[in-house]
Amino acid sequence: MLSRAISVKTSANGWTAIWRAPFEDTVFRNDTAADPRQAILGADILGMGFGHIVPLPLESMLADGVGDTPGPALGCEGSPAATSAIGATSLDTVNIAALGAIAAPGDVALTLSGPAAADATAGTVILSDGGSSVFALAQGVADGGWTATFTKAQLEGLADGTLTATPSFETPTGAVNGSPLKIVKDTVAPTLDPTLPPGTYSGVQQVGLAAGGADKVTYSLDGATPQTYAGIPVELKAGTHTLTGTATDAAGNVTTASWTYAIDAPASAPPVAGPTARPTPTVTTTTVPSSRSLVVRDLHMRRSLRRSEIRRRGITASMRLAAGTRTVRIAVYRRVGPGELELVTRTVRTPGKGGAYRVRLGGNLRKALTPGRYVLVVTPGRSESRFVSADERQRSFRVTQR
After folding, report:
1. Do 16 and 68 reside in the same domain of the chain?
2. Which residues are 4's β-sheet partners?
3. pLDDT band at 133; cut points 50, 70, 90
4. What's the CA gap between 174 and 177, in Å, rounded?
5. Mode of pairing for the β-strands spanning 254-264 and 199-202
6. Residue 25 to residues 6, 17, 30, Cα–Cα distance (Å)
7. Which of 84, 111, 221, 307 is in the most buried spot, having the most CB atoms within 10 Å?
């Protein structure tokens, strides 16, 4: 962080750093974009020496530029200017993997720490889900820096969602609360199911992946390099195939599953013997309706929706379904780049027959649709496992903040 052309003058009241040309390096503020809660202990953000009191001793530490919290740089907790606060957390997100890595209910699963004001004598940290709360004592407050630990059992007792950690410190003038810290708890893995049940089929098949609550879905066919699944069904030709899918949600919870399919080549009927026999055409047995047979028509929805409106009522689309349509698969994708889509949600509805059909999507979608551009895709089918991607229709729409 500091130029090599530097000299330091010290005195009883502090020190002065002097840079002299040529400036072989450049001084940056937090040039590595370090997270103060995770990276404050990294050596690349320490300038030199040690020192935790005012006035600074002849050897002093520089650790500026890793956050906007007022007060002295982390590491200088003993300074009279220090304020009591949460400075670091061992977990930003409590997910299945984080709790699964802890062996016993009484083992430490979450550690919070930070600076303490010079007049602080004791402290407590309360962790709440908005309904239930657990607490831990802050250790080491008198030394200017504290640590509080929560066990696996305590975290498991709190509901999934946003947890709020609030520190409170005792001082000669009374209790002082520090700034709260938000921590996400999500221990529900996304669901992942194929649109075609595993088994034996005749003729080329199309298999889609339905993932509830997933932020990203990937798939691999027969051990090939995993690819991002963007709603386009995987084609299975004659042979035995293993399809492996992985669904990951925003909290890092992962669901992986594999399905095996045996695809037989379509059979041909033999010609009939005899002088009057006529050629018999090839008979192909398929498990999906012929192309364009269930085409979705007149798909309409508003092109621009306000986020506040979606939070209240969800989104609505109307369409006209062809005769023979029994189910429709409705998916919403977020445009994350040129030609790149990210699945937001997918659901299957059962109108039961063709004709005019209107659908409203709500639930988790109310919060998931943040400002941006999206695509609604409607795919018809004769059953919940027989969808025809060639007949699907899509509409683009935009979500605005106001």
Report:
1. yes
2. none
3. very high
4. 10
5. parallel
6. 11, 15, 14
7. 84
Are 232 and 158 in a shared domain? no
User: Tens of pLDDT along 291-323?
Assistant: 447 888 889 999 999 998 998 889 999 999 988
Question: In terms of residue numbers, what domain contains 169?
Answer: 88-185
pLDDT at position 69 over 60:
no
Amino acid (1-letter code) at residue 398: R
Single residue among 60, 80, 100 that ends a domain in this structure: 80
| 210 and 138 in a common domain | no
Joined together, the tokens standing for residue 299 give 């798909």
Q: Is 396 contained in some domain?
A: yes
Q: In whole angstroms, what is the distance from residue 238 CA to residue 202 CA?
A: 8
Instruction: Mark whether 181 and 207 lie in a shared domain.
Output: no
Tokens 């005019």, located at residue: 356
Q: How many residues does the chain have?
A: 402
Segments in 19-64 forming alpha helices (H): 36-39
Alpha helices by DSSP H, listed for 149-260, are: 152-156
Q: Counting Cβ atoms within 10 Å, is residue 246 exposed (0-12), middle (13-18) or buried (19+)?
A: buried
Q: Which pTM was predicted?
A: 0.49
Same-domain check for residues 336 and 313: yes
pLDDT computed for residue 279 by the predictor: 53
Residue 381 lies inside a defined structural domain of this protein? yes
Residue 345 β-bridge partners: 332
Contact 136, 124 (CB under 8 A): yes
Domain boundary among 22, 51, 80: 80
Cα torsion angle, 126, 90, 34, 71, sign? positive
Distance CA 55, CA 67 (A): 23
Whole-angstrom distance, CA of residue 344 vs CA of residue 333: 5
Angle of CA points 67, 166, 144, to nearest 5°: 60
